[in-house]
From TrEMBL, chain A:
Organism whose genome encodes this protein: Solidesulfovibrio magneticus str. Maddingley MBC34
Modified residues (4-aspartylphosphate): D53
An individual GO BP term: phosphorelay signal transduction system
Keyword Nucleotide-binding included in the entry's annotation: no
Protein name: PAS domain S-box
Keyword NAD listed: no
CDD domains xref list: PAS
TrEMBL record, chain B:
Lineage: Bacteria, Pseudomonadati, Thermodesulfobacteriota, Desulfovibrionia, Desulfovibrionales
Alphabetized GO MF terms: anti-sigma factor antagonist activity
Protein name: Anti-sigma factor antagonist
Residues of the STAS domain: 1-108
InterPro entries associated with the record: Anti-sigma_ant (IPR003658), MlaB-like_STAS (IPR058548), STAS_dom (IPR002645), STAS_dom_sf (IPR036513)
Superkingdom as given in the UniProt entry: Bacteria
Annotated family: Belongs to the anti-sigma-factor antagonist family.
Pfam family, one: STAS_2
Length: 519, 108
């Protein structure tokens, strides 16, 4: 710390400096004017204590002390008067001028040091208190700035619902000057025209969450122009019982959410429409002829899949049937499925050759090869699996091609059921070997069951798959039943297994039964 | 689906895990394709040992990736398929299509 010694006697200044050696830095002045100038000069080191001579020419110690005390920048510096006179009048004057202490010349060293130390301790305490005050002031300003510039509105309501604090953010959110509402009730009346919201808020203001708990809710409100907006409010209670209300404007967020829901609904409507179209393409449920009957079940996945199947007459003596599953699901897969459906229409030359007046049924492996040319993977970035079969109703001779589809089951009228063994690769990749031809002779009462992989891949709530073994077991148990009973049993088992949850992929079941050769 | 990647001298090994289904494919396709093309290795090996389930979207994704590699003079093969995926690839008759390329005659 620094001590200033002011005395017009050079000898006395030197004497004091000698006594004060080791008590900190010393500055010596021979006039009060020089001392005042130095104290006022920010470039000079700050002084913590002044030892002031009382009687000096030009300006005496009393006047100098008065001036030090009158200047707020120096008023905290303690002044000790050092003088020869010790009469009551001089003492009174010195204390009246603002001196904190008084030492008689010539000072005795222990007394001087004790008084100087005491003054310096006082100055240090004053400095520390002032520094803390500055810190507190800065903190307060900082918190005020946070509240001023925070986008959130913050209000504090006392136990009587009167607002003890309202941040400027409230004005930004609700568009009304903060002093529009002095109580929480008044605020509720003005900005929450919605009856339910107002009642709910009034209830919270009245009951308040327990300290440590936060309640958060979304409320509609009206701004100053009556526009509907939305805010989210956090309620918490201070230990004192005051309710802190923290408000965020959620209008934009809510609007975006609303738009998203609208978009989603539109999208869902499109999906539903696409699913309806997909289902409209499925075969009608009827028995085709005395020679053949069929049954099917179809469970679409919740966001439309790429399964399609059909059974149709092919020329005068044949029936064609196929089941296909386009990779992926969604609108793109279903559009590809529709496209294949059109390509596979029974009146098209894809399936029958009408040359020279004859109607020749195109062998399935040739049809699949045509599909492979027509639907390369690169066209839609999709592949599909398809099982296609033609049945000659006159003798039950069936020919088929299976491009990567789960093997259909042949369930003979007599003997054990078996998977159709011949199978080739999926449709869409030109550089794979062609689908080999398969053949089968259907006897009266034989059945065929084609299933898309959606059934085996179905999962129950625990994540377990339905599996092929389960399909085989149910089919075997129902093997002697009519085809519609067989197919319905599988559908029921699948529905029970999923417990009403929609399947992850389309689920298609198609069964045909060769009743007897066509006369 | 999670994707991790290890660059070896001769091959980039892309390890997929979780379920390779439509949503996962939509999310990760671009990243895997970028990884495959950024690698200097002439072969891309997709390790499926940690894949719990793959649907047709996943197969379509791998076919697309194989074609992309082919277009950039790289090979793509699948490694360590789980029994379920092995069965799926066998049903689709794609086992050979995704098998590691046999070392052919040395190219000059």
């Amino acid at each position: 710390m620094r001590i200033a010694v002011v005395d017009d006697s050079e000898t006395f200044r030197a004497y004091l400096q000698g006594l004060l050696a080791g008590r900190g830095e010393l500055s010596a002045f021979d006039t009060a004017g020089d001392c005042l100038a130095a104290l006022a000069d920010p470039a000079q080191p700050p002084v913590d204590l002044v030892l002031m001579d009382l009687i000096m020419p030009v300006m005496d110690g009393l006047e100098a002390t008065r001036r030090i005390k009158a200047n707020p920048a120096t008023a905290d510096i303690p002044v000790i008067m050092v003088t020869v006179s010790d009469d009551d009048a001089s003492l009174s004057e010195a204390f009246a001028a603002g001196a904190m202490d008084y030492i008689q010349k010539p000072p005795r060293k222990p007394e001087l040091l004790a008084r100087v130390d005491s003054a310096l301790r006082l100055k240090a305490a004053i400095d520390a208190r002032k520094a803390r005050e500055r810190e507190i002031k800065a903190e307060k300003e900082y918190i005020a700035a946070i509240l001023e510039y925070s986008h959130d509105g913050i209000a504090v309501a006392g136990p009587d619902s009167r607002f003890t604090f309202v941040s400027p953010g409230m004005e930004r959110i609700f568009g009304l000057p903060a002093d529009t509402y002095t109580t929480a009730d008044r605020w509720l009346d003005i900005v929450f025209p919605d009856r339910a919201a107002r009642d709910d808020l009034a209830d919270i203001v009245a009951h308040r969450p327990a300290p440590g708990h936060v309640w958060r809710r979304l409320y509609p409100f009206a701004d100053k122009n009556g526009q509907r907006r939305a805010c989210q409010i956090h309620f918490s209670t201070m230990p004192s019982g005051d309710l802190i209300i923290n408000i965020q404007d959620m209008t934009l967020f809510e609007k975006q959410k609303e738009d998203l829901v609208k978009k989603h609904n539109r999208h869902q409507k499109d999906l539903d429409a696409a699913a309806e179209i997909q289902q409209s393409l499925l075969p009608r449920r009827f028995t085709m002829s005395d020679s053949l009957r069929f049954a099917w079940e179809f469970v679409p996945c919740d966001n439309i899949g790429g399964d399609i199947f059909n059974v149709f007459p092919l020329g005068p003596h044949h029936v064609g049937l196929y089941m296909l599953d386009v990779s992926g699901h969604g609108v793109a897969s279903s559009l590809v499925a529709h496209s294949v459906y059109n390509f596979m229409h029974y009146q098209r030359s894809t399936l029958v050759d009408r040359t020279g007046g004859a109607i020749d049924v195109v062998p399935p492996e040739t049809v699949l090869s045509r599909l492979n040319d027509e639907f390369p993977f690169t066209k839609f970035q999709k592949f599909f699996t398809i099982f296609y079969m033609t049945i000659d109703l006159r003798d039950g001779r069936a020919r088929y091609g299976n491009a990567g589809h789960p093997a259909p089951w042949h369930i003979p009228a007599r003997g054990p059921m078996a998977e159709l063994p011949t199978r080739g690769p999926i449709i869409g990749l030109a550089d794979l070997p062609p689908v080999p031809p398969g053949e089968l002779l259907l006897a009266s009462g034989d059945k065929l069951l084609a299933i898309s992989d959606g059934l085996a891949d179905s999962r129950d709530a625990k994540g377990e798959s339905f599996g092929e073994e389960r399909i085989a077991a149910i089919a075997a148990a129902q093997a002697r039943e009519p085809v519609d009973v067989l197919v319905a049993a599988l559908r029921r088992a699948a529905d029970d297994f999923r417990q009403a949850a929609p399947p992850r992929d389309d689920l298609s079941l198609l069964g045909v039964e060769f009743i007897r050769p066509k006369a | 689906m999670q994707v991790t990647c290890e660059e070896m001298d001769t091959a980039l090994v892309v390890r997929l895990s979780g379920e390779i289904i439509m949503d996962a494919v939509t999310e990760c396709r671009a990243e895997v394709e970028r990884l495959a093309l950024a690698s200097a290795a002439p072969a891309v090996v997709v390790d499926l040992s940690a894949v719990a389930f793959m649907d047709s979207s996943g197969v379509g994704f791998l076919i697309g990736l194989r074609r992309l590699c082919q277009d950039h003079d790289k090979t793509l093969s699948l490694a360590n398929p789980t029994p379920a995926i092995k069965k799926l690839l066998a049903m689709l008759r794609l086992t050979d299509y995704f098998a590691a390329p046999q070392p052919g005659p040395a190219r000059s």
